[in-house]
Amino acid sequence: MIPLDEIQAAAERIAGSAARSPLLRLPLVGPAPEIYLKLENLQPIGSFKLRGAGNAMAQAPAEALARGVYTASAGNMAQGVAWNARRLDLPCHVIVPDHAPQTKLAAVRRLGGEVIKVSFDRWWDVIVSGDYAGLDGYFIHPVTDPAVMAGNGTIGLEILADLPDADAIVIPYGGGGLSSGIASAVRALKPAIRIYAAEVETAAPLAASLRAGRPVEVDYKPSFVDGIGGKSVLPEIWERVSALLDGSLVVSLEEVRAAIRLLAERQRVIAEGAGATSVAAALAGLAGAGKVVCVVSGGNIQFDVLAEILSES
């Protein structure tokens, strides 16, 4: 569990860079739960990753930052690190998997980051090891860095400030850094709130690990839901999420597509696949009744993919 005082300190550090995203109720009719949207897609880079990257870089030693920074990311953490690196006038490299969407890579380059594309397996090795041979900059781990998780946890503080009587919170699960941070804040302040991860059926290592009672590897299948999912749960994260979360809610690709369409239609919100998984889970009733907060983690979706999804009936 990330200590509450570290999350509160992170909120002060990033107040000048990360936006305080709105919490809006999703207009629905019928028996659906009362769904609220925490719109992290409205951050300057279109993703919550600005928070963790900014907090980690604010706490890093100056001599370490002088060599530049790098991270491993499918696109959103890459943008978070690149955005903060440009703000601090630092060199930035990002290691990305070969299926990373061009819209996210273009954004990284626009922010001044240098992209290094590798195979998915090689990229996952960097996530696991926290190192990439040939780069000597300061590595910011997208998931397991406690400073990154503390920055992510500021979302939990904002949710409770805006909706203190929430019954459940659903969080897209990629590596577990977002859920660990938010759940740490919520458990410290409102321990009775149900907290769930949301995964997609093509890449749901947390659900499989929770069933097995230990981290297990799954067959990862790339899809348009590129911002979450992996081959396994990182050991450093397993101890946190298995204790902090009430479960993982797994949705289908079609349910995610339907959630993207509904968000665009009802709220005029553009969500990427990862960001819509939480909404898909809530719409399916998997998070239970009452006031359900869905973290819309990002909105960086390729326009051709979005157009195809919106054109489906």
Q: What would your notes on this structure say?
A:
With about 325 residues, the chain is α/β, with parallel strands linked by helices. The chain folds into 2 domains: about 5-50 and about 145-310, Rossmann fold, CATH 3.40.50.1100; about 50-140, Rossmann fold (3-Layer(aba) Sandwich). It contains 13 helices and 10 strands. The chain has helices at about 5-15, 50-60, 60-65, 75-85, 100-110, 120-130, 145-160, 175-190, 205-210, 235-245, 255-265, 275-285, 305-310; strands spanning about 25, 35-40, 70, 90-95, 115-120, 140, 170, 195-200, 250, 290-295. Strands 1-2-10-7-8-9 form a 6-stranded mixed sheet, with helices on both faces. Strands 5-4-3-6 form a 4-stranded parallel sheet, with helices on both faces. The N and C termini lie far apart (about 45 Å).
Through-space gap between termini: 43 Å
Give the overall form: globular
Number of domains: 2
Radius of gyration (Å): 18 Å
